[in-house]
C-alpha cells in the first residue's frame, strides 16, 4: 500500500503535473497518459478496499492523506493543479479526481476520470464522453463495456454520411491507439486486445467485401462481391425512418402521402378503381433529402425498401445491367407491396446515346422500361427514382405509365432550415444560447445534408475538446468547414511568396465584392488552403433567392475576375499564376449561360441557343448560321471583358485598401466581413495574430507554469 501512495506523487511528478521540490521544470504534460495512469492507480487502491462503504472511503482517504500530496493539504477539500488548458482536481473526500480542460469560452468543463469505481453524482459528467472516454482511456469494467463501445461505434458510424465515415474510423482507431500506448509495453494484455481488434476489423472488411456489403469502387464502377454468384443482390431494408425525420419539405411530404396510403392497403385502391402512379421522380439538388424522403415513404407504409443506384446498373459486361434490373424487379414482385428506389437515375437513364462511357446503357434502360410496363398499376410496387438533372433524362422514362409523377425536393428555405436545425440540434447536447433562427439565417443555400453535417461536425469537435455541450462557436466553425471545405491542418503553407500572392488574389475578390452593389455579401476571406484552392473568399447570401437578376450575375462575374486582376496589378502581367484558372472557368460558364440561355445579351437576343447542344444525335448539324455563332462568341467575350474592366477599375482606385487588406490577411490569415471593413478603413483588429497565439502557446509549454495552491500552502505552513 505504501507503494501505491508513493506512486501517486511520483506519477504526478513524472507526468509533469507536480513540480518537484527544487522546482525543476517538468516534461510537458501528456494529459491522456496522466489520466490513464491516475485512473489505474486509483482503481488499484480501490480494489484493495472492495465496495464503497463510508468506512472504506475513510480508510482509503487515510492512505491518501499519508501520501505526498495529501499531507500538505490535509484540511483542503480539494486540490487543483493547473496546467496550460487543463486542471486536475483531486477531491480526497470522495476519493476521486477529475481532469478538466478549460472550456471554449469561459466555462469550465469537467469529466470524471477514475472516481475509483464510484460514481459521484454531484460532478457534472460531460455528456459527450464517448470520445473523451476513448481518448483518456477510461476503463469500462467488463468486456461488455467493450462490446457496448463497439456497438456504439457501429451505430454512430452508420449515422454519418459516407464521406465522413473514414475520418470517424480514423479518430476511433487513434483513440484506441493513444489508449494503448500509454501503457507503454507494460500492458501486454492491452496490446493483445488491440491486435485482436485489428484482426477482427480486417476480417470484418474482408467478410463485408465477400458478401457484397462493402464494395470496392474503381473509377465509376463497382467491383464488388466477386465471389458470390449473384452479384449486387439487392435485399430490402427494414426502414425505421418516418416523415418525422424528414424536415423542411412539407409540400413534398404532402405530395407523397397518397402513396403511403396506397402502399399500406393496395387492395383498397384497386377496389375503388383508383389509378396510382407506378413511378415517382424526385427532383432536386444533391443532399436535399430525396433518398431520405423515399425511405420515409417506405417507413411510414412499413413496406420493404429496395435501394439501388443507377450507377450499379452500369456494368462492364454486356447485358449485366439489364439482368440486374430484371433480378431487382423479380425480387420486388415477390415482396410487394414495396418500394424500389433508384438513386441517380440520370447515370443510367440519360438520353439513350451510345457512347464509350455507357456502352450498354441502352439495354439497361430498355429493360427498366419494359419492367415498368410489365407490372400493372395496382400490383403494389412503386418505383421511386431520384435525380438532380431531370432535363437529361430520357423522355421515354417520363411518359405516362412510367415516372409520371414528379415531386420537387428543393433546397430548404429559411423556415425549413430552422426546422432542420431544430431537428438535428435536438439530437445533440447543446448550449441553451443557440438560436436556430440565427443559424438558419446564416446558412442560406445549405441543404439538409449540409446542416446535418454542420451540426455533426460541431458535435464531434466539441467531443474531442471534452466540452460539456456544443456551443455557437463550434457551430460557427463547423459552418465554415461546410462552406469552404476543411482547412489545411498545418495552417498556412510554408511558401511565403505563394501566401503573398494568395493574399492579394483573395483581397482582390473581396474588394470587388465590397464595392459592387449587387454582389452577394461577403462572409469570410482566408489564405489558409481549403480543399483544392490556396485561399478562399466565402460569400453568403442574406436571404433565400428564388431567381437571379442580371445585375447579380454581372456582380458575380466581376467578383470572380477580381482575383486575376489583383495578381496582374500587383505582381505584373508576367507574374500571374494558375490560381485564377478555376475563377475563369466558372466565369466563362456563367457568361455562356447569360448569353445563350438567359437572353441577357441584346445583340444575340432572346433565343435559347443551347437547344441543339442537348440534342442526342450522333452527328451534330448546327442550324446556327456562322454569323450567329460568331456573334454569340463575340458576346460571350464582351461580357467577360467588360467584367474584367469593371474589376480592374475598382482595384486601381482602391489600391490602398487592397494593400491594407492583403497585409492584414498575411498577418491574420482569416478575416470576417466586419474585420475586412475595419481593416480597409485603417482600423486595427483587436485580436492576437495566429503567429502570436502560436508563440505564446509554445512559451507556455516551455515554462513551468504549475505551482498553485499546493506550494503556496506549503510555504505558508513553514513560516
Ligand atoms: N430535409 C431533411 N430533413 C432531415 N434530414 C435531411 C434532410 N435533407 C437531408 N437530410 C440529411 O442528409 C442526408 C443526405 O440526404 P439524402 O441522401 O437523402 O439526399 P439526396 O437528395 O438523396 O442526395 P443525393 O442526390 O446526393 O443522393 C440524409 O440522410 C439526412 O440525414
Ligand atoms: Zn480566385
TrEMBL record:
Compartmental location: Membrane; Mitochondrion
Ranges that cross the membrane: 197-216
Single GO biological process annotation from the record: proteolysis
Keywords: ATP-binding, Hydrolase, Membrane, Metal-binding, Metalloprotease, Mitochondrion, Nucleotide-binding, Protease, Transmembrane, Transmembrane helix, Zinc
GO molecular function: ATP binding; ATP hydrolysis activity; ATP-dependent peptidase activity; metal ion binding; metalloendopeptidase activity
Cofactor list: Zn(2+)
GO cellular component terms, A-Z: membrane; mitochondrion
Alphabetized SMART domains for the sequence: AAA
Domain named AAA+ ATPase: residues: 276-413
UniProt keyword annotation of Mitochondrion present: yes
InterPro entries: AAA+_ATPase, AAA_lid_3, ATPase_AAA_core, ATPase_AAA_CS, FtsH, P-loop_NTPase, Peptidase_M41, Peptidase_M41-like
Family of this protein: In the N-terminal section; belongs to the AAA ATPase family.
Official protein name in the record: AAA+ ATPase domain-containing protein
Source species: Caenorhabditis briggsae
The organism's taxonomic lineage, starting at the top: Eukaryota, Metazoa, Ecdysozoa, Nematoda, Chromadorea
